[in-house]
Design a protein that fits this description.
Radius of gyration: 27 Å
Helix content: 25-40%
CATH class of the largest domain: Alpha Beta
Largest sheet: 4 strands, mixed
Order of helices and strands: EEHEHEEHEEEEHH
Number of helices: 5
Structural class: alpha+beta
Shape: elongated
Number of domains: 2
CATH superfamily of the largest domain: Ribosomal protein L9, C-terminal domain
CATH topology of the largest domain: Ribosomal Protein L9, domain 2
Strand content: 15-25%
Length: about 190
């Protein structure tokens, strides 16, 4: 296998932090890291520039960390509410994605990149979810995402709606097992007045 050394200009998950020189497979470096601007080649000619780049990256790192800490303090504990259409069992028609979260944050005046929203998979059910925003490797505020049934009252949560619906669907008259089918058949039969 062919390998190459690159200087990371951005943090790359499972590889390294900005400013590190790492050894990667040549194809990964040439086809992904270099074109995406995540790294620069650490060739013999670039070795002198690398020290200068490390100094520049360290200054940039400090500047970004301080701005991320300021923004993280404002974001921490923020609550985003989404009203979505819901099926029978509390499963959404569609989902709440990281792009939806980024757009909601943008409406509130926060600029966050989509890749910074740590959402493993889109939210597809009703409830409250904690979502981590990776502003910086050391700054990761958590926001609350609340997904409610569309048209549900403001103060009432979907979980309470489902619980009350299940209780009302259950037969409330205690009877022997032999009488139960008759009671449920009568309750579902249409009544004419």
């Amino acid at each position: 296998m062919a390998y190459m050394e690159v200087l990371l200009s951005e943090d790359v998950d499972n590889l390294g932090h900005r400013g590190q020189i790492v050894r990667v497979r040549a194809g990964y470096g040439r086809n992904f890291l270099l074109p995406q601007g995540l790294a620069m080649e650490a060739s013999a000619g670039n070795k002198r520039m690398i020290e200068e780049q490390k100094r520049i990256l360290a200054k940039r790192e400090n500047r970004e960390r301080s701005s991320a800490e300021q923004q993280g303090g404002k974001l921490n504990g923020l609550e985003l509410v989404y009203d979505r259409r819901v099926g029978e069992h509390g499963i959404l028609y569609g989902s709440v994605t990281s792009m939806d979260i980024v757009e909601s944050l943008k409406e509130r005046g926060y600029e966050v990149e989509r890749r910074r929203v740590s959402l493993r998979e889109p939210i597809k059910s009703v409830g409250e979810f904690d979502v981590v925003i990776k502003l910086h490797r050391d700054v990761t505020p958590s926001i609350k995402v609340v997904v409610r049934k569309e048209g549900a009252p403001e103060g009432k949560s979907e979980a309470a709606d489902l619980a009350s619906a299940e209780k009302s669907a259950a037969p409330s008259v205690e009877s022997s097992p032999a009488e139960e089918p008759v009671a449920s058949a009568e309750s579902t039969a249409p009544t004419e007045e």
